[in-house]
Every structure is written in structure tokens, then in C-alpha cells.
Design goal:
By secondary structure, this protein is mainly beta. About 0% of the residues lie in helices and about 25% in strands. The chain is built from no helices and 4 strands. The protein has a two-stranded antiparallel ribbon. A two-stranded antiparallel sheet has the order 3-4. Strand 1 and strand 2 form a beta hairpin. The radius of gyration is 19 Å and the shape is rod-shaped.
């Protein structure tokens, strides 16, 4: 029996976004900006997650890592 041929594409890992930079900060928040990843790997990037190490204090040095 004949069937219809379909193409299937597998997404790869997206590119790395730019390094986060601090814009402003208060005692309860930090505003950051960064350049997005230029390559989405074939699937839209829906979110970034940032982690802050509160032990070292406030400011840009605490923005340590990002994950997709």
C-alpha cells in the first residue's frame, strides 16, 4: 500500500544568548538585559532562566548562569 511521504525535522540546541548586563537594581529587584540567541535551533525559544547567588550581595556579579 502506498503512503504519503512526510518530512520530519529535529530541532537542535539553540545558540548561546549574550551575557546578561545589569540595567538597574533595588533592594528587592534587578533589571537585566541581554542579546537573544541568534539561532533558535529550529524551535522557538520560549524562556530564559537566570539564577542569582544571594550570598555575595546585590549587583551584576551575582548573575552566574543561564539555562534554556
Amino acid at each position: 500500500m502506498n503512503s504519503t511521504i512526510i518530512s520530519c525535522y529535529t530541532a537542535t540546541l539553540p545558540g548561546i544568548p549574550g551575557k546578561p548586563k545589569m540595567v538597574t537594581s533595588t533592594s528587592s529587584s534587578i533589571e537585566l538585559k541581554w542579546d537573544p540567541a541568534y539561532d533558535d535551533g529550529g524551535s522557538p525559544i520560549e524562556q530564559y532562566q537566570l539564577y542569582m547567588d544571594e550570598v555575595e550581595g546585590l549587583g551584576a556579579p551575582n548573575v552566574e548562569d543561564w539555562v534554556l
